[in-house]
Amino acid sequence: MSERITSIMGSDNPGDAEIQTHAPGVQGRLPLTDELLRHAPSGDLFGLSQNVGMGWKPGRLNGRQFLILSTQGGLRGEDGSPVALGYHTGHWEVGLLMKAAAEEISSQGGIPFAGYVSDPCDGRSQGTTGMFDSLPYRNDAALVFRRLIRSLPTRRGVIGIATCDKGLPAMLLALAGMPQLPGIIVPGGVTLPPTEGEDAGKIQTIGARYSTGELTLEAAAELGCRACATPGGGCQFLGTAATAQVVAEAMGLTVPHAALAPSGQPIWEEMARQSSRALMAMEADGLRMGDLLTDAAVHNAMAVHAAFGGSTNLLLHIPAIAHAAGLRMPTVQDWIRINRDVPRLVSVLPNGPVFHPTIRVFLAGGVPEVMLHLRRLGVLEESVRTAAGTTLGQVLDWWETSERRHRLRGQLLEKDGIDPDSVIMSPERARQLGITSTVTFPTGNLAPEGSVIKSTSIDPSVLDAEGVYRHKGRAKVFTTEREAMRAIKSGGIQAGDVLVLIGRGPSGTGMEETYQLTSALKHLSFGKQVALLTDARFSGVSTGACIGHIGPEALAGGPIGKLRDGDLIDIVIDRSRLEGRIHFVGEGEREVTPEEGAVILARRPLHPDMRPDEALPDDTKLWAALQSVSGGTWSGNVYDVDRIVTALEAGKKALGWS
């Protein structure tokens, strides 16, 4: 046992035992006045001592204080090499943005502070119990970010630097909840694609492709090594991470042309300095988050989401941002109306029709380029204020004639041989290519509260002449993602099947993402002939005939939880009219009408194997309960404090606790 302790403690170093017991302290004087000493809170005075104790010069203590928050993760050496890994590339380099932003604030006479709440990687946790914490993390992180903001009472404004699937939505929720404070978002950017290889979305299917004989072991190993071609930034596709960046800019919460910048490159680092200057100008002008984040700004974000073909996860995040800001929360009817009014204009991974990486969207002009087209269609609210201190209309006027626009679009043509107008298209060109709007919200006897599908990404080869997806097939029902994935890898799922995954909504798993399944179906040769129904949600990179967010969730008594193997399911999705239905229409050899099917389902018990996952942590059970009484999935999985308190008081009274 002593050998074990010795191996841990190491050999004695006499120098380590030389302990300093006091120090002279900082030489100088705090800029105190009679007024401060008599009337300032003790915390303000103690803060000055803390500031000089950390090395800030006493003569510079009177500058305006600004807080920089980020999702930084890992430990980088000065040369960029890893000392300790982060969870993902998305937060690996954002410390460089923090440093650039802080130096700019300092150079302007301000005092920068920095705080961190790191974030998980949805790709890393796919198919694991780590996914049970993914969506709940967003609310918890936003809560901690807000506590950090309030815990620095002397801050004049906040910069939020974040990139990925839950970290950036959490940052948006946090700043939205501070309407009286100047705030600005700095998107953490994107990673580059490999010169030869696969993007970070497709690479997540190497296990499925290898298991079904569609990829060799050698190819899987080599492709996996190259997928993240640069060490920082979110994934190269328009998933939730990239879509959240786009939405932040569309809301007017960033400097112009900020979303999707290439991580680690000079234009990306300069964005941090631009953001610091913008925030300090906002503070000087009295411009606050509440002036930027309005109902009109939320409308613009939804329009840009539709034009980009963004992740369905933003149907959870945008309402949550609106709720945090005290705004009207968009409804399903709002999403339907906007997606009917706004055409998809961006050709990008994973939607296509050409699978350009996100760096090309940035070079083609990014958010402001898309907004130029939307302005011509008359679907934007141009009078909204932006973090640049001007209206959106003024930002777009600047962008249209800017040297930056001309130079970057020229680089895309010069370096990659890509016409920027083929990446971000005019409505006329998009219409000629048959590109359809982004999302559809099917209903039916299996989804009485609704569901969602990224209908624009259904493979065109499985549509009829009118652009309608029709699929009638037998259900194969699974109560865990692991079982469903095993069936895909072993041949248990065949062309024509309807794969049904139940009990994976908020109450079962924290509403896990099921990208393992959707990515496998996309990249397996027979996958486009399979439909997927679930009460879980999808990764932003998911594509195909995959219908999620089905409500009510199975564990809340939803009809989807009553399906059995062999049940006949009828799915119709009209990509042009943005209408859809999912019905149970038969058991055994007997086919019934949707109305008769609803009656049969009402009489059935829930699936006997369905229950909350045994590994579901108590933290997530608490989140599930709180978001459920706050409106649930279709209200953005938020914490509505008034409704929660009302429910608790009613419960206490019913139990005789009060």
Automatic annotation (TrEMBL):
Regions of compositional bias (Polar residues) in chain numbering: 1-10
GO BP: any one term: branched-chain amino acid biosynthetic process
One Pfam family of this chain: ILVD_EDD_N
Domain Dihydroxy-acid/6-phosphogluconate dehydratase C-terminal: 442-582
GO molecular function, one term: 2 iron, 2 sulfur cluster binding
Record region (Disordered): 1-22
Top-rank taxon: Bacteria
All copies of domain Dihydroxy-acid/6-phosphogluconate dehydratase N-terminal, residue ranges: 88-394
Keyword check for Iron: yes
GO cellular component, one term: cytosol
Entry keyword set: 2Fe-2S, Amino-acid biosynthesis, Branched-chain amino acid biosynthesis, Iron, Iron-sulfur, Lyase, Metal-binding
Sequence similarity: Belongs to the IlvD/Edd family.
Alphabetized PANTHER family for the sequence: D-XYLONATE DEHYDRATASE, D-XYLONATE DEHYDRATASE YAGF-RELATED
Protein name (record): YagF
